[in-house]
Amino acid sequence: MIIGIPKETKDHEYRVAVTPDGAAALIAAGHAVRVQTGAATRIGLTDDAYRAAGAQIVADAAAVYEADLIIKVKEPQTAEIPLLRPGQILFGYLHLAADPQLTAQLLDKKIIGIGYETITDTSGTPLLAPMSAVAGRIAVQAGAQALTMAAGGNGTLLSGVAGVAPGKVAIIGAGMVGSNAARVAVGMGADVTLLDRSMDKLRHFDDLYQGRLKTRYSDAAALAALVADADLVIGAVLLPGKKTPKLITRHMLSQMRPGSVLVDVSIDQGGCAETSRPTSHSQPTYIEAGVVHYCVTNMPAACARTATQALASVVLPYALKLAQRGMLALMNEAGFLNGLNVYQGAVTHQAVAEDLALSYTDPATL
C-alpha cells in the first residue's frame, strides 16, 4: 500500500502522525511511504531523517494525496478537500459531529474516514487519550496566561502568594483532560475543584489528592455556583463521537467576575459553553460576557514535539493493521471499527449520524 504523510495546514499545526521510526516500520512491513517535504521540520524531524528511514520525500501535497492511505493529525482543511479522491482511506482526527460541512464534503468525496477520536479499546479511547492528556496540561498554562492583565484577564495569579489566597479553578469533567488539568493546577497551588457525575471517579481523586483537591458532583446547582466563583473554568467534557452538550450557559458566564477565564478544551466537539466558538493559535482568545475565552481547536499543537511523540506511538500499531489488511482490520476488531465514521458516501458512526440528523448505515452491512 502507498501511504501518504502530508504537512499539516491548520493554523500553527506542527504535529505529524508518523515519525521517521514509524515510517521505517511501515516500510519494513512492505509498504511505500511518501512524506511531504518539511512535514515535521519544525519539531526536529527532518526530511533527511525520513529519507534515512526509506521514505520518499515529495515537494507538494498533491503527490502525497495520490496515496491509498492518508495518515494525518487534523481534519482536512479547505485547500486539502479537492486533493481527496473516492475510495481513499483518511486516518486522523475528524470530529465530524461538530462539523456538518466537512462531513458533507467527505460524504460527497466518498472517502473512507477513520477518526482517531472514536476508536475504542478496554481502556477507553486510546488514540484520543494522549492528546487529551497534553491538552489538559496546556489548558492550565493557557488559562494562567489568559488571566494576566495584558491578555484581558483580571490579574489573578493562580498560585497566590504569602498572605493572598490562590486563584480558584473549576474543572468540568474528570476524564483524561480533567485529570491532567487537575494535576497541573494543584501543582501550581491553585484552589481546585473537579466536577463529574461519576462518584467512582470523584472518590478516586479524593483519595489520590488527600484534601489538596476538592470534588463535587456535577449537578446544575453545583455547576452554576462553582462557575460563578471561579477565576478559571476548564471545560473538559467528552461524549466520544458526539457533539459536546452546552453545560455552561451564557447566564452562568455572566455571573463570573469580569476578566475571569474559560478554557474550553471540548471545542473540537463543539464546545461545552453557549458562548464558545473556535479560535486558533494565531488569535487564541476573545472576550464575551466579560469572560476571556480560550477555545483553540488544536491545543496540543502548542507543544507539538511532545504531542507528536505521544501521538505517533499509539497511531503506529493501528496504521500497520490498516496498511496490512485494509477494511478487514476494522471488521475483525470492534474497537477499531468504532473509528469508521464515513464509508464511501455513508455515515457509519451512530453518534455522528444522530448529531447531524443523517441516516446511519451499519458498517457490517457494507
Keywords:
366 residues, alpha/beta, Rossmann fold, 8-stranded mixed β-sheet, 7-stranded mixed β-sheet, 13 helices, 15 strands, globular
Explain this structure:
- By secondary structure, the protein is an alpha/beta fold.
- The chain has 2 domains: 2-125 and 304-365, 3-Layer(aba) Sandwich (Rossmann fold); 129-297, Rossmann fold (3-Layer(aba) Sandwich), CATH 3.40.50.720.
- The chain is built from 13 helices and 15 strands.
- α5 crosses α6 (176-188).
- The longest helix has 22 residues, at 304-325.
- The protein starts with a strand and ends in an 11-residue tail after the last helix.
- The model has no long low-confidence stretch (mean pLDDT 97).
